[in-house]
Write a structure and sequence with these properties.
The chain is of the alpha+beta class. Helices cover 20% and strands 37% of the residues. The longest helix is centred in the C-terminal third of the chain and has 14 residues, at 119-132. It is globular and about 35 Å long.
Amino acid sequence: MVKDIVKGNQIFLKAEDMTTLDLNVVTDLIDTFNANRKNCVGLAANMIGYNKRAIIFEDQEEKKVMVMLNPVITKMEFPYNVSEGCLSLDEMHNTKRYRRIKVEYYDVNFKLKKKSYSGFTAEVIQHEIDHTNGIII
């Protein structure tokens, strides 16, 4: 189901881990992401009203939409400053990102995965994981 984008204090809360009982969140995250593709490159579950650690984005290298459950960045390299926007905010903000990251996460079948990302995809993942940690740019 397509959900409204949340603005306000709810997205400043640190999200709870996803469990196998929360898979309805994934469906709503996918539906809402697809409905907003013209205006966004990623979403976190707390942006659509679920205080859960789940994100969705398009992997620019593989040209496919990815869902990560309980993602954690385990390595960051090559910092840089960038100006980013967000559906939950009305203006652009400056922030620090890393050009290369390594992420541990669970896929939608709760299989543990580890993958390295770089460039714009890494930036988007960092932005969305920040949301799950209660951080907005």
